[in-house]
Q: What sequence folds into this?
């Protein structure tokens, strides 16, 4: 009964974490319990995990026959496992390789700009390789280990860029030219949905631990510290979107429903522009008699068949971990890992927020080391194939999160300068910059461009505490490990 309870504890450990609210029911993954360490035993742990630690003349196939064909375990199997697992630790090299299929989600939310972007159900096929060496240091056995992983995106996933549900972004504030009072804000709302495929990921880790420093019956616990690095790139193609600029918003009487009027701009005969607002009394929108044309500003549909969004994101920093190994018998073992990390976060993006749809580096979000948090967990079942080779299968789980990361937006000021000069040299202003920038009678677009140059020196707009982001993954892994 003790063995069964311990096995159940190891298997249900990740489920208990999920119950706390971190499990992504739509499947999430991205990363083999960050890089193979969740699914690999230390060299010393492997000695308790499969046949190589026992009598070299023992026949693994004959044991399998007795165990599964007759349902009877040889009488000496449990005693041998217990005796051997408590004996002197062994030293040497171990090597592990495996393939993991993971499902993941990555999302970030922008506070002031009112935008949420998410890549959902991202599939990864990941190859990982890790190695380690255990050695004696006095009465203690220590280990060093390192791992590398590379993954490619599997199939297609959905990206959505939502500038609606989080509030939208300020386009401009309209001013009454007569008395300088604010009329109201023009807010941009947009939603786009695209296809993500062809992404890639890469990670590595290095660690140092004290092998089997704690033992409870047949359970050995190895604490370790290390450094972990994860980087992934995701792109969006075939993006469909709708952009709507709104003005007056109101709550529908008797409900929680909110409705907003689209921005309607009137071009007047004197060259000025006027925005039309709903009449609160009768709901009409009266157009001035000297209007020459009416348009709905930036309300339009668009389709981008090529690459519209591209992001390269990195989580990297130190971790502390506990590896647990439970010896079932001389051929089988269960092992698991819990890891807490304190990485930094960097995400460099290229997104289509510009009117000309050009794609230089457009955004960069960053938080220093120890600003983010990582929780990783996983478990494996291993069974001996030969004296020195074992097969393993298991589950992995990762959750990365950061709050209040700083954001930078990179503008192409040549584009805005060209626009500014076009307005300045138009028939209306004829090079009179002072008149064009008059706060009461000047051109609103030119005034906004000039303000943009002042608030974003060199075309770089910086915002502190703008980004909240998370990445989570769930995967199933099969692998082969060997000792030397």
A:
């Amino acid at each position: 009964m003790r063995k069964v309870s311990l096995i159940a504890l190891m298997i249900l450990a990740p489920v208990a974490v999920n119950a706390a609210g971190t499990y992504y029911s739509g499947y999430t993954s991205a990363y083999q319990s960050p890089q193979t360490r969740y699914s690999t035993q230390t060299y010393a742990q492997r000695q308790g995990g499969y046949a190589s630690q026992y009598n070299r003349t023992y026949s693994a196939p004959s044991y399998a026959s007795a165990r599964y064909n007759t349902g009877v375990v040889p009488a000496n199997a449990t005693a041998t496992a217990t005796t051997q697992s408590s004996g002197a630790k062994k030293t040497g090299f171990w090597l592990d390789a495996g393939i993991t299929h993971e499902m993941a989600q990555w999302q970030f939310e922008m506070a002031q700009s009112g935008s949420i972007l998410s890549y959902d159900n991202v599939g990864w096929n990941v190859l990982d390789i890790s190695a380690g060496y255990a050695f004696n240091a006095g009465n203690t056995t220590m280990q060093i280990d390192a791992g590398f992983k590379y993954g490619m995106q599997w199939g297609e996933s959905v990206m959505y860029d939502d500038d609606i549900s989080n509030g939208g972004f300020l386009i401009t504030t309209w001013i009454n030219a007569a008395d300088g009072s604010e009329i109201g804000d023009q807010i941009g709302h947009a939603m786009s949905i695209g296809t993500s495929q062809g992404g890639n990921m890469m990670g590595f880790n290095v660690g140092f631990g004290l092998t089997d420093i704690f033992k409870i019956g047949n359970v050995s616990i190895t604490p370790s510290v290390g450094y972990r690095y994860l980087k992934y790139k995701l792109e969006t193609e075939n993006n469909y979107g709708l952009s709507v600029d709104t003005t007056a918003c109101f709550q529908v009487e008797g409900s929680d429903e909110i409705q907003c009027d689209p921005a309607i701009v009137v071009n007047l005969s004197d060259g000025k522009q006027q925005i039309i607002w709903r009449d609160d009394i009768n709901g009409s929108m009266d157009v001035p008699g000297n209007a020459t044309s009416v348009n709905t500003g930036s309300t339009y549909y668009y389709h981008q068949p090529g690459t519209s969004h591209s992001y390269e994101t990195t989580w990297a920093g130190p971790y502390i971990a506990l590896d647990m190994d439970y010896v079932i018998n001389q051929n089988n073992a269960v092992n698991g890992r819990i890891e807490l990390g304190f990485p930094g976060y960097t995400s460099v993006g290229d997104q289509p927020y510009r009117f000309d749809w050009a794609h230089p580096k457009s955004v960069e979000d960053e938080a220093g080391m120890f600003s983010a948090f990582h929780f990783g967990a996983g478990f494996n079942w291993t069974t001996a194939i030969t004296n020195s080779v074992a097969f393993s299968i298991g589950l992995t789980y990762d959750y990365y999160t950061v709050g209040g990361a700083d954001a930078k937006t990179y503008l192409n000021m040549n584009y805005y300068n060209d626009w500014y000069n076009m307005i300045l040299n138009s028939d209306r202003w004829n090079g009179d910059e002072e008149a064009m920038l008059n706060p009461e009678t000047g051109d609103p677009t030119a005034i906004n461009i000039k303000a943009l140059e002042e608030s974003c020196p060199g075309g770089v707009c910086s915002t502190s505490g703008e980004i909240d982001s998370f990445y989570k993954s769930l995967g199933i892994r099969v692998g082969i490990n060997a000792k030397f």
Observations:
- Helices lie at 2-22, 43-47, 60-69, 77-85, 413-424, 433-436, 444-455.
- The two ends are 34 Å apart (CA to CA).
- The chain has one domain: 2-177+193-238+308-411+456-483.
